[in-house]
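Record 1 of the preview.
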Amino acid sequence: MKRSKRRIRSRKREIENKESLAFCPECAPAGIEENDLFCSPCICPEQIPQPRFPSPTSNFPAEDLENLKRCINKANTLLLSLAQEGEIDGNEIDSARIPIVQAGEAAEGEVEINDRALQVSLFQLIGQCVEVTIRCNDEEEVMDGIFADSGRDFIILERNYKIHKNLLLIPFEKIIKIEHQQVKEPCERNLSDIDTCLRRDITFCFGETVSKSPFLLNLFFGLSLSLFLESYIGRFVYIKGEEEIKGCLQEITNRSVIIIDNCDKRGIDFDELCFIEIEDNSN
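->
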């Protein structure tokens, strides 16, 4: 009997020592959980104390775990870009060839990379002042602005004027190089700061939620220039190709952009398109 009591006391001290090292209470007190309920419309019952059993998220040390996560993210990005490569005749890769250089650096050769991988890499330029050199009608032209976003086969620059901000859309295939000054930390493309309700919708209704948002479609899959322009039908645009035209954007087809200028319908093929500037109609 005495041995049994000593064994119980010894076991009790052992448990107390472990708890003090883990800094974890035996039970989780009620009412400490966040009250957002993951944006659930259901009213949860009153919380009662529950036993808490701490468990590490990984057997790796913290530094090794962070290195592993970075490797996994790089591998996922590579696999995503490879999975969405275009093919020509079943063999050749339909690649964009755009060197991106810091201001003051020389572009040494051209960099081959597929369109989706290029789009993802360009996200690092969001919010930066850039100068884009394009080739239009066998001539080079330099355009500048704030890098606003990157689509599947084009970039978006924001051009600030005195009373309005226009959007400048430039196809990848017309770009020779992009130069920029590193004036601030690049904007990361993630969903860490979205509200709880949107996070819930993406988790449980991914297809329905993403299909309604051009931003989410572009982030997850990449929007082409033709799909992006569908959202701006009815806006005044300025287009430069083999000729310069301007007017109200009326229709987008798989091959061309169609506008109306003084009741005159005109169009330009995407192959000839150097850039499109969309006028701000907020004023």
